[in-house]
Specification:
- The chain has a four-stranded antiparallel sheet, with no helix packed on it. It has a four-stranded antiparallel sheet with strand order 2-3-4-5, with no helix packed on it.
- By secondary structure, it is mostly beta strands.
- Helix content is about 10%, strand content about 45%.
- Strand 30 and strand 31 (about 430-440) form a beta hairpin.
- Helix 1 (about 10-20) runs antiparallel to helix 2.
């Protein structure tokens, strides 16, 4: 008897998952593939179900919308957003400055059940770090950072593993400069592990060690230091910790290094325990425009723009191993537009590169053979282009003598009257690219979202946005499975529009 593959419907797949979890990863992938098929069916569409305005910044994260500086939270898991919680109003001193969302990996074994729940890490203006429940807003933990250093920014070093809090830069006061008093400490970084939340240390960035620094970040275990000379240097954070950490600290425990005081409690906070006495070995250095360099793919490559005027608008792709420019490694869209094109490594971890301009989106792949001795090659995987009339526009004028003069000129590449790519978002669970396209031919800015297959670039469906799109304002679009969120800023007001996937003709 011939073997045949049995087709499974949605109910059967979900039932099988509930009965047998031996191959849970495969079942989850099958269910997401099934969901993607439903999303792309012609009898379903994204319908605008909800709008809300605010005087403060609006943020969307993992199915939740935050208003009033994270004081109000709305859940998006329902057919339209519903209030999840509202926190008591905070004073200006307690204002939340920055937030990170933490979600515990399943393989972690933790002491407290509360540590498994999704939580928000919230940094306040008075130097407190709070861990709040993402579901209720309940305070789970609080840490006092420092009475001396003003911390302002929260960022991931390694997502869901290590984060850092950066202080504002110390500026030399004119009177201190006149008196000959030097300010050598430029800023501080406080580094933490999560799950469980624990301090690694607070590190000084010293002018005598690093020179005249404009910015410092941690990324993937690497300390990246930007200089006013348009150069970036990379250092190993692991090497810095091993060599320069003077004492290990534990939150909530007394420390002899801290004079017997409890670490992370008011009024003393957390002491500086990483003092860099001399310059660590430089792992990598590059001169680049805007102090911007990206590292990714495999084998490792980096993308940068040289700081010379003749290279403006071009992006160079080089091998990290030997700094050799890849064949076809200079990418330049030659845009004539108000907003410049942008390029980055693709967030799907495929090692590809995505390059977005006003009229073209290129997805590039790096072709490289290990130990071949030949430079890697940049090749086009697929491309998307806008549909527009590229004919030059004529402007007719009449001179005083009655002679007609025609002057021809070309529109900008991101002209609001022409179809233009505005942004690209990647939906990792459905493996789709959401491309925002605007077109103002009818006198009012209109936008739609094109959903493309991430592997081949095929256009699978289009979603029209109901609200007008004014390109002079700031916009953000988030695509999260069955939800599309459009956040726009109009002067000092913010507005959030939510679209949900519904069967055609279904009422909210």
């Amino acid at each position: 008897m011939a073997l045949h593959r049995r087709n499974s419907n949605a109910a059967e797949l979900l039932n099988r998952r509930s009965r047998d979890s031996r191959d849970a990863g495969t079942l989850i992938r099958q269910n997401l593939k099934l969901f993607r098929g439903i999303l792309l069916q012609g009898n379903r569409n994204f319908i605008k179900v909800w709008s809300k305005t605010s005087k403060s910044t609006i943020k969307y994260e993992n199915g939740k919308i935050y208003f009033d500086n994270y004081q109000s939270c709305y859940s998006c898991i329902h057919s339209e957003p519903q209030v999840l919680y509202k926190l008591p109003k905070r004073s200006k001193l307690e204002k939340i400055e920055d937030v990170l969302l933490c979600q515990c990996p399943l393989e972690k074994a933790l002491a407290s059940p509360s540590e498994y729940k999704p939580s928000l890490l919230a940094l306040t203006a008075n130097n407190w770090l709070y861990r709040l429940s993402a579901e209720t807003g309940e305070e789970l933990q609080r840490i006092y950072l420092s009475p001396c250093h003003k911390f302002r920014y929260l960022c991931w070093d390694i997502s869901q593993e290590t984060f850092f809090i950066k202080s504002i830069q110390n500026k030399e006061a004119p009177l201190a400069r006149q008196a000959g008093i030097r300010q050598n400490i430029l800023m501080h970084l406080a580094i933490f592990n999560v799950f469980p939340l624990q301090i690694v240390g607070i590190m000084e960035i010293n002018k005598e060690v690093f020179g005249y620094v404009t910015d410092v970040v941690l990324s993937q275990g690497v300390l990246a230091v930007s200089y006013s000379t348009k150069s970036v240097k990379l250092y190993s954070f692991e090497h810095i910790v091993n060599k320069y950490m003077t004492a290990k600290l534990m939150l909530g425990k007394p420390s002899s290094f801290h004079g017997g005081k409890t670490v992370g409690e008011i009024p003393f906070g957390i002491p500086v325990n990483i003092h860099i006495a001399d310059c660590p070995p430089v792992l990598f250095e590059v001169s680049c425009s805007d102090n911007s360099v990206q590292i990714g793919s495999y084998p490792w490559h980096y993308i940068y723009t040289p700081p010379h005027k003749r290279h403006k608008g071009s992006h160079h792709i080089c091998s990290l191993k030997d700094n050799i420019l890849a064949t076809n490694g200079i990418q330049n869209m030659n845009c004539c537009s108000l907003e410049s094109d942008w390029i980055s490594f693709h967030p799907d971890d495929s090692g590809r590169i995505i390059h977005v301009g006003p009229t073209t989106v290129n997805v590039l792949k790096i072709l490289s053979e290990l130990n071949s001795g030949l430079p890697s090659m940049i090749d086009k995987d697929f491309s998307m282009t806008t549909h527009r009339n590229n004919n030059s526009t004529s402007q007719v004028s009449v001179t005083s003598s009655g002679r007609t003069v025609k002057r021809r000129f070309h529109n900008l590449d991101d002209d609001p009257d022409q179809e233009t790519f505005r942004m690209v978002e990647y939906e990792d669970e459905l493996d789709l690219l959401a491309v925002v396209v605007t077109n103002g031919e009818e006198g009012e800015g209109k936008a739609h979202v094109q959903l493309h297959d991430n592997q081949r670039g095929d256009l699978l469906r289009t979603v029209d946005l109901v609200e007008p799109w004014d390109e002079t304002y700031r916009h953000e679009l988030l695509f999260d499975k069955e939800t599309i969120v459009h956040i726009e800023q109009k002067n000092n007001n913010f507005c959030c529009h939510v679209y949900k996937l519904q069967a055609v003709g279904c009422e909210t």
